[in-house]
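Protocol step 6 of 9: fold each sequence in the batch and record its structure tokens directly after the sequence line. For illustration, a two-sequence batch is reproduced in full.

Sequence one:
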Amino acid sequence: MFKGTPEIIVQRREEIVNACEQLYQTMSFKDITLKEIGNVTSFSRPTIYNYFHTKEEIFLALYEREYDRWNADLEKIVNSDQNYSGQQIADMIARSLEKRAQLLRLLSMNNYDMEENSREELLVSFKRAYGRSLANFRKILEKHCSGISGTEVDRIVYVFFPFMFGIYPYAEVTAKQKAAMTDAEVDYKYQSLYEITYNCLIKLLGSSNQSGK
């Protein structure tokens, strides 16, 4: 690890993660290499090794940052003094994820590789951000959906979070994929990130309210 002040280390790590994020806008996970990332930063590939040992560690840091961004939106809902209906909660969470297409893309692609090929301390840091999202989501349900029992809150959390892994590939479909579906004569209605998320949450919250009656 580079021997510098904590501020310099954070700054340089952020520059590397920013470069990875920039490349990820137009390239796939498998095509992005440390050399490509080095070309976008002011560092050589050997210098990058002072901060991240693998490409997966850089992506994991980007992944963590995406959870931090989502947590900021979730915490606004948690801290709001307003009373929201189930429909409003579904709408707000769906809109918060609509802005986090990159998080949903990372969830759907190479999640195992990122975690398996990262050092434990970086994985723990990532899991803290992920854990905050679980806690914030749970707090939203407990605060604004008072008719739902603790058991039902658990059920919703552990249905919705695995569900998130599949949102992106169903919403962000390429022209090639659409053409293949047409040629295969598959009758399929395409939905946006927002629509898929909202419809899932409405179903979960509605089912829970009915079961609690």
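Sequence two, same batch, same settings:
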Amino acid sequence: MTPQQIAEHAGITFSKQEPGYLNLCVRSGKQLITSGHVSDLKGKLGAGVTVEEGKLAARNCAVKILNSVWNTHGTLNGLRVLKVLGCVNSTLDFTDQHLVINGCSDLLHEIFGKTGDGYHARSALGFVQLPTGAAVEVEAIFEIKE
């Protein structure tokens, strides 16, 4: 199956986005660079939000990113995931940001392949606060292979 088919089979739906204040995904040469996409889940890891809830929030961010990429590129096919930056709204003593952002990476591995086009570089950082009180924010860079 193609990445587009795998995503759809996983229940991800794609919908047209109206242009907003900022561009959610911009093409530059052979790269697609996304803005940060925040989770629907609000709260702070280490103060009420569990790692498992954080992983689901990171997956939610990945789904939003894929929709923005689809809006710009028209498909998920022909792409390679280059870089993911995961930001986790967390307490000063919380140190499992990397586990939270696995929720995003796991979905990208599922769609693009863990050892193929989904094998990406990644940073996972803790932040004292994120916009709208979101638990997680993720941005990504994709390469257009064709």
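Proceed to step 7 once all outputs are recorded. Observation for sequence two: Helices lie at 3-9, 51-73, 97-117.
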